[in-house]
Every structure is written in structure tokens, then in C-alpha cells.
Write a structure and sequence with these properties.
With 387 residues, this protein is an alpha/beta fold. The chain has 14 helices and nine strands.
């Protein structure tokens, strides 16, 4: 890390984690208390990023609060594993996740794909249920998506959770060709799930890969994504528009230097020229104050997706302040892909609409911890379908 960047890097880390921890439903008072004890991003001594989160995770482990321990270990290795200490934190997250699943009495399997190059957790196998694949973005390990595994029996889907290339136990490099991991995951559960019906919930950068995969694999019936880059992000990639944490993480996942990324990013964009038209529903959540993904991505997506279903929220990347709206919206969009689950989809859609109505009535401004971020609009949530 360049010393001149260390202070701004730590500030960005703290801001991103505040948002990330909200999405994971961690106690925000506890999170802020831990952040106050962190004085530097690197190292293993007291006051360092990894040490303070690791200490908090160990406390939760001692209390056998395995779900909380998993999330805190995940933050200790955030945004990616670069040191032995961060590797210990990552292993702690994996072990705590396994304990948490046992505590919840949910049976799952660990799938090893492409000779163990990457892994996935699966539940709801061998029941003939449709398939849901869940993948986070460039900082989200698969252990964070436990709630989808816990939901599998309730929504009667085979659920597989995994992570992007370079994240967690995925040892692949992140490239524009990494979309092939999704068909490989579907192949891995062939005969154990109804793979003729598959929905991808692929968040942020994994949404970019999901679009590539869906254009080529007819088994994919729908995509749900939040803040996915399509074309504008890659065209506009520079130090002014992309936060340092994002740039550093992308360099780590791709194995490319900052200079190489600047040169290659424009080639990653999805256009009508390099992607067959997407004819399946693409449910896209756009955060109107997204500090990473340009608002113009909606126009980029309209050009390649014939059935884009847009949902907008007045929030920053990932809309972490509105998980109460995002969760039922996501479930309704996922279930709408499967004819046999349309009744459940309608139920979650109703829940979403009711919560959306009350959110509008309250008209509360989102509380964003982003640096220099000023929210100039009240809460807004609406859905529109492209023409």
C-alpha cells in the first residue's frame, strides 16, 4: 500500500464496511464501536483492521454465536485475503459458517467445481426443485449468503451459493470469460435439481458475468442483480470515478496492475456487438447515489436486455439502508422465473409493495456514511419495465 493512500484507504474501508455490515444485518452500534478502535489498515497489532475485527469475531465464537462470528471474521479479511492473518480470518468464517448451519439444523453439501478450482454450498438437492444460484460481488464470500440456504426448504428451491473468481475459495482469475463458472455450477447439480429452470441472483460485478452466461445458456430463466456494471463503468474506469478500495480489489482479483486495468477495462463492456440479446427478465436494482456504478448503466442495459425490470432506490451502492425493501423485491423477482412458484412470488411482491408504501409515507432520508455524500432526495422506490 502506498503510504500516501493509507489514510484515504482506511477511510474508504470504514465507509464500505458500514454499508456492508448493514446488508449483513449486523448491530450497527457494535460495528461503529469496533470501527472507532481501528487506527490503521495494515498489520496484525492492536488497532489494525484485521486484529480488531478478529478480536470481535473470537468473542462471538466463544459465545457460540456462530452466525455473528461468521460475519465478523468476514470483515476481518475484508476486502480480500492478502496476509496470513487475513487467511486465518477467512478460515474462521468458513468454520463458523459450518457451525452455524449445524446450529440451524440445515443440511448442506460443499460442491467442488472444475477440480476444486472453486467451491459452492448447496441445499435442497435431490428434490426435483428449480435451481437458484446466488453469488455476491468482489468483496462477498459465499458464507455471507447463509440466509438463502436457510430459505431453500421454505421456497422449495435448490439453492447454490458461491463467490466470484478471486474471492474466498474461488481460485480463478476474474476475466470477462469468467461467466463460464455459472454453466459449470448448473452442470454440477444436473440430475439433482431441475436445471432446466435456473435463476441467477448475481450481485454487483457478478451480475456482469451473469448477463454473459444467460445470453449463452438457455437454462438460465432470469437474473436478479443489484448495481451491476454493464458498459459505462468499464468505459469510464479512472481514479476519479472509482473508489480506491474498488480499484485495489479489482487489481487483486484480476491479477492486473492499476495501469493494465485502465487499458483493459473498456474491453469488458457489454454491448449489442459483443453479446447476443438477453430475452429473459433482468431485474435490476439501481441505487441513485451509487458511488461506484454510473447511473447511465440503466441505458446500457436497455440496449442489450429486451425485458429489463428496473427498481430504483435513493441510496448508495447496494442500497443497504433499504434491506427491508430489497429482500422481498429480490425474492419476488427470483420466484417469478418459475411457473410453479408464481403464487409465492405474488406473496412476496405483496409484502414488498406494502413495505414500499409505508416507506414512501415516512419519506425518511437514507443515512449514508459515504464520504462527502449528500442525499438530496427523499426515499424513493419505484419499478418500471423497459419498452
Amino acid at each position: 500500500m502506498n503510504p500516501s493512500n493509507s489514510s484515504s484507504y482506511l477511510t474508504e474501508l470504514k465507509n464500505f464496511v458500514l454499508l456492508h455490515s448493514q446488508a449483513q444485518q449486523l448491530d450497527q452500534r457494535e460495528v461503529r464501536a469496533i470501527l472507532e478502535t481501528i487506527t490503521h489498515a495494515e498489520g496484525e497489532d492492536a488497532g489494525s483492521w484485521c486484529a480488531q475485527w478478529f478480536k470481535a469475531a473470537e468473542r462471538e465464537s466463544a459465545r457460540q454465536n456462530w452466525a455473528s462470528a461468521t460475519k465478523l471474521y468476514s470483515l476481518a479479511r475484508f476486502p480480500y485475503v492478502e496476509t496470513e492473518f487475513q487467511q486465518r480470518a477467512h478460515e474462521g468464517a468458513i468454520n463458523s459458517f459450518e457451525q452455524s448451519m449445524q446450529q440451524a439444523k440445515v443440511t448442506f453439501e460443499t460442491l467442488e467445481i472444475e477440480n476444486g478450482a472453486f467451491k459452492a454450498y448447496a441445499t435442497g438437492l435431490d428434490k426435483g426443485w428449480p435451481l437458484l444460484v446466488v453469488c455476491g460481488g468482489i468483496v462477498s464470500i459465499k458464507e455471507q449468503w447463509q440466509r438463502f440456504l436457510l430459505l431453500a426448504a421454505r421456497i422449495k428451491l435448490c439453492v447454490v451459493v458461491t463467490e466470484m473468481p478471486g474471492v474466498g475459495e474461488n481460485t480463478l482469475r476474474y476475466t470477462p470469460q469468467s461467466w463460464a463458472m455459472f454453466p459449470q455450477l448448473i452442470d454440477a447439480v444436473q440430475g439433482r435439481a431441475d436445471t432446466r429452470q435456473c435463476h441467477l441472483m448475481a450481485l454487483s460485478f457478478s451480475g456482469h458475468l451473469a448477463m454473459h452466461a444467460a445470453a449463452r445458456d438457455p437454462r438460465i430463466r432470469g437474473i436478479t442483480t443489484v448495481g451491476a456494471p454493464v458498459a459505462s463503468f468499464f468505459r469510464q474506469y479512472n481514479t476519479r470515478s472509482v473508489p480506491l478500495v474498488t480499484r485495489q480489489t479489482l487489481s487483486y482479483l484480476t491479477g492486473l496492475s492499476g495501469e493494465s486495468l485502465f487499458k483493459q477495462m473498456p474491453d469488458w463492456q457489454i454491448t449489442q456487438e459483443n453479446l447476443p440479446p438477453l430475452t429473459i427478465p433482468v431485474h435490476y436494482l439501481q441505487s441513485q447515489f451509487d458511488e461506484i456504478i454510473p447511473l447511465s448503466e440503466v441505458n446500457s442495459l436497455k440496449k442489450v436486455a429486451r425485458d429489463m425490470r428496473l427498481y430504483q432506490l435513493a441510496d448508495v451502492h447496494g442500497s443497504p439502508n433499504y434491506m427491508h425493501l430489497v429482500a422481498p423485491w429480490a425474492l419476488s423477482s427470483i420466484l417469478s422465473s418459475f411457473p410453479s412458484r408464481r403464487r409465492q412470488a405474488a406473496l412476496f411482491r405483496l409484502v414488498w409493495q406494502v413495505k414500499q408504501f409505508w416507506s414512501r409515507r415516512r419519506a425518511v432520508r437514507p443515512k449514508s456514511p459515504a464520504v462527502n455524500h449528500v442525499v438530496a432526495a427523499p426515499v424513493m422506490a419505484n419499478e418500471s419495465r423497459s419498452e
